[in-house]
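seq as requested:
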Amino acid sequence: MAEIENLKFDEKELIPAIVQDIKTKDVLMMAYMNKESLKRTLRTGNTWFYSRSRKKLWQKGETSGNTQLVKDIKYDCDNDTLLVSVEPKGPACHTGEKTCFHRELEKGVEKVEEIEEVESAVESPIIQQLVEVIKERKKKMPEGSYTTKLFKEGMPKIVAKVSEECTEVIEAAMSQGKKEIVWETADLVYHLLVMLAKKDIDFIEVEEELKKRRSKTG
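struct tokens:
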């Protein structure tokens, strides 16, 4: 444990940890560790992190079962970032994707006046793409998918997660920064979409309801 003392933790006693698949070299996720979560990671051989929004330690896969077996941990030349090589036991992303880094920024926007139009075109497809992924998970129920696990556990588990994420959004809004609020809101939106899919409700129906309300308010 002596080397831990050489690491540079930030003012909140946290250090970023980049998690990488040891076989494919894919970057799976980025989270934060404090000294205690790092010690637990070294002691147990599974990844543990610190949640800045919930202010507590959490083990990757404690609810989804998608744990990460640690193979080695390196730190950079500035002693302020960790690289954790793991053997993943299932997807890293809560959406069911293998890695949290599965989306790509739009390219080729050359004119300033086109930016708003491009952003408008991109926003809806992202939601719809996620809806389609969730529908596909519901249809094929692939093993190792967090979304599959939610569908198998049924509506009680899904609504419990929606309730949990609502609470975390509120907590983030009351005491955390913009990044944490965005993160927790994304979690809530995902679980809401799973709930709708479970009830065979297409998100388009929600959009139509919003359009009706908009037309009434003028």
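Confidence is low (pLDDT under 50) at residues 107-124.
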